Amino acid sequence: MMSEIRQVGTERVKRGMAEMQKGGVIMDVVNAEQAKIAEQAGAVAVMALERVPSDIRAAGGVARMADPTIVEEVMKAVTIPVMAKARIGHIVEARILEAMGVDYIDESEVLTPADEVFHLEKSQFTVPFVCGARNLGEALRRIGEGASMIRTKGEPGTGNIVEAVRHMRMMQGQIRKVVNMSRDELMTEAKELGAPYEWLLHIHETGKLPVVNFAAGGVATPADAALMMHLGSDGVFVGSGIFKSEKPEKFAKAIVEATTHYEDFALLAELSKDIGTPMTGLEISKIKAEDRMQERGW
Amino acid sequence: MKIGVLALQGAVREHIHLLNQAGAEATAVKRAEQLQDLDGLIIPGGESTAIAKLMNQYQLKEPILNMHQQGKPIFGTCAGLILVANQVEGLTEPHLNLIDIAVKRNAFGRQKESFEADLSIEGVGDNFTAVFIRAPYIERVGPEVHILAKMDGKIVAARQGTVMGAAFHPELTDDLRVHQYFVNMVKDSLVANSLK
User: Fold this and answer.
1) Is B174 in CB contact (< 8 Å) with chain A?
2) Which of A143, A121, A149 is nearest to A194 (CA)?
3) Closest Cα of chain A to B28: distance in Å?
4) Reading across the β-sheet that carries A25-29, which strands appear in turn?
5) Which of helix, strand or coil describes residue A82?
6) Residue A120: which pLDDT band, with cuts at 50, 70 and 90?
7) Which CATH class is domain B2-194?
């Protein structure tokens, strides 16, 4: 019998994986037990980490890829996709995670960058990548390198939504501007944004990013998640928010439902009741410039 | 003709886009009351565990079963295939139990084994670029079930009466043929139901 030819790692297969996550919540977990709670709550994927961003922030020092034992433990515990973080520009951490069969890699500013000039050439990998961005230029540079999914950077581990809102509004506003520009203005706009011209032209013609765009960095309540959906996010990453809250099970479930039903405000009121105290938030201006994770990446 | 796409989570807008192109009026559906005036329903790709939980939480199961009893066609893709099956490996209970098939989840492997391939689909045509993402396949079909497509010997699309399921994502390409096939199923059902 003739065997059909399978093409793995194509752009469509990698971006398609992120398309399937839309409208969902991706949760940071540090062990199998948390991964199961996340899956039970209806998470569409988990991000396996050694420490959540707020603990990374507290611990200081160099933050690296998680111990593969933790990633493997999480992969065994759940049937939903498992993501993991590699340092910016760390080719080998990314290859290790790919070899382990991780479903998605986050080239993440939450970890200490391994390269202060270059990001990974992500199109060379079979596994898809998600990258953070604060504006359209940054998003399109990452897409130019082969990222299959974009997320706002926000300010991770703060429980403060203000930076994620800033980044999402910035990107949406810049997309609207590019769509309405005349074509002969695009090259100069590409120069201003530091964005690859071809991808800017793509946005001008299609009206949207070529990949899914999630919110991340500072989502701490169901209302925060719903807010990001209102601003045009395709879905939500919740890092420290869930397992730093008082009642993680209930909290996780409420965030999942708030993300799906973000336009139903009576329901959001119900979902926000009695879910315990969310994580303690950090005021962004109190964080020293050199400690802001969103400044990492180029 | 109005076809709903279950919009709890997953690839909703792609299905809506292709259904509209295939001549149907497509609408995203999140609530039970929105299911009432539909002529057909697509359950999209996404994460089956997440979609199933939200479906139960918001009491969507009964109205979907009612649609099925009224002879309205239902099409599940990838996660949707898992939701319509009457048996899912690793689960004690099926979700909607609409079609007599046994499904194995993530059967083609994890994301790095995800792939696209050209497929021949009965009633649809040849060279359909099928995108398989952490896809399931069908391990067993009942006597009433008609096999529509196989990939390397594994069943990846099947139909039983007004219920169809596919392990791949026809919504991730610009090829209208699978959606056209489903729109035709809905048209046929409207004729059949008007004769009742």
Assistant:
1) no
2) A143
3) 12
4) A212-214, A149-152, A129-133, A104-108, A82-87, A45-48, A25-29, A236-238
5) strand
6) very high
7) alpha beta
Q: How confident is the model at residue A3 (pLDDT cuts 50, 70, 90)?
A: low
Residue A4 confidence class, pLDDT cut points 50, 70, 90: low
Which structure tokens are listed for A52? 């959540």
The per-residue DSSP string of A168-214 comes to HHHHHHHHHHHHHS-GGGHHHHHHHHT--HHHHHHHHHHSS-SSEEE
- E strand or H helix that includes residue A238: strand A236-238
Buried b (16+ CB within 10 A) or exposed e, B145-173: beebbbbeebbbbbbbebbbbbbbbbbbb
What are A28's two structure tokens?
């940071």
Please indicate if the annotation marks B140 as binding a ligand.
Answer: no
Separation between Cα atoms, residue B131 and residue A11, nearest integer Å:
11
- pLDDT band at B138, cuts 50/70/90? very high
> What Rg value do the Cα atoms of chain A yield, rounded?
19
- A-to-B residue pairs, Cβ atoms closer than 8 angstroms: 122
ipTM reported for the complex, 2 dp: 0.94
The residue count for chain B:
196
Residue A209's nearest CA partner among A180, A172, A237, A236 is: A172
Return all residues near B112 (Cβ < 8 A) that are at least 6 apart.
A8, A9, A98, A101, A103, A126, A127
Residue A182 touches partner B, C-beta closer than 8 Å:
no
CA geometry: angle A142, A203, A87, nearest 5 deg:
10
pLDDT band at A49 (very low <50, low <70, confident <90, very high): very high
What is the predicted pLDDT for the residue at A277?
A: 79
Asked if B173 has any chain A CB less than 8 Å from its own CB, the reply is yes
Query: What pLDDT is stored for residue B62 in this prediction?
Result: 96
Going from N- to C-terminal start, the domains of chain B cover 2-194
Whether A85 is a known active-site residue: answer yes
User: Which residue is associated with the tokens 């690839």?
Assistant: B11
